[in-house]
Specification:
heterodimer, A: mainly beta, four-stranded antiparallel β-sheet, 0% helix, 47% strand, B: mainly beta, seven-stranded mixed β-sheet
Chain lengths: 114, 113
């Protein structure tokens, strides 16, 4: 079935470092792709999305490009801040939606130190 | 403000003592669901509801019940909690099952002793 694989965490970076969190997917067709973020003590919230191949989603300095040829949607940020410390989830809607609107990866914890 | 609220945020209880975690959304969403989040396992769906009086099992429903008597509320009931239900629980809602963006509550951290 449709699935998402994220790089294992945790990831620890110094402030202003470059961030990449890898996400690859397995899906029939070309679904929309999403990144959600979970800040400490909070629920998940949508960070960005891309609805078709070659689209780039962006928000709060984060970007991700929908790459059909590599079935990837890697999350990047040029200069991370301490406030970016959170858990990041890649997600997609399963083709046969079944019971859930989205299938989530297992999450990647990012810690940014000053 | 559009939001999903959960109560309580934190709960410590003992094995076998029935409890209810409430969830409410003010966005008139049709679809609501409950997840549990455990280290190394990510988010797993417990139950979901596509509309009032329509509920169904997710991936890990054992030991849980839900009800959907009103569109805005979707309580999670643990009739006889056990230690393996110690977890972080999230309620989520979306406009419909086909609507991809989900809105999450802040979470309820449950410890069953």
């Amino acid at each position: 079935g449709d699935s998402v694989t994220q790089m294992e965490g945790p990831v620890t970076l110094s402030e202003e470092a470059f961030l990449t969190i890898n996400c690859t997917y397995t899906a029939t067709g070309y679904p929309s792709l999403f990144w959600y973020v979970q800040y400490p003590g909070e629920g998940l919230q949508l960070l960005l999305k891309a609805t078709k191949a070659d689209d780039k989603g962006s928000n709060k300095g984060f970007e991700a490009t929908y790459r059909k040829e590599t079935t990837s949607f890697h999350l990047e940020k040029g200069s991370v801040q301490v406030s970016d410390s959170a858990v990041y989830f890649c997600a997609l809607p399963p083709l046969n939606s079944g019971n859930t609107p989205l299938v989530f990866g297992k999450g990647t914890r990012l810690s940014v130190i000053a | 403000e559009a939001q999903v609220t959960q109560n309580p945020r934190y709960l410590i209880t003992v094995t076998g003592k029935k409890l209810t975690v409430t969830c409410s959304q003010n966005m008139n969403h049709e679809y609501m669901s409950w997840y549990r989040q455990d280290p190394g396992l990510g988010l797993r769906q417990i139950y979901y509801s596509m509309n009032v009086e329509v509920t169904d099992k997710g991936d890990v429903p054992e030991g849980y019940k839900v009800s959907r008597k009103e569109k805005r509320n979707f309580p999670l009931i643990l009739e006889s909690p056990s230690p393996n239900q110690t977890s972080l629980y999230f309620c989520a809602s979306s406009l419909s099952q086909g609507s991809n963006e989900q809105f999450f509550g802040p979470g309820t951290r449950l410890t069953v002793l």
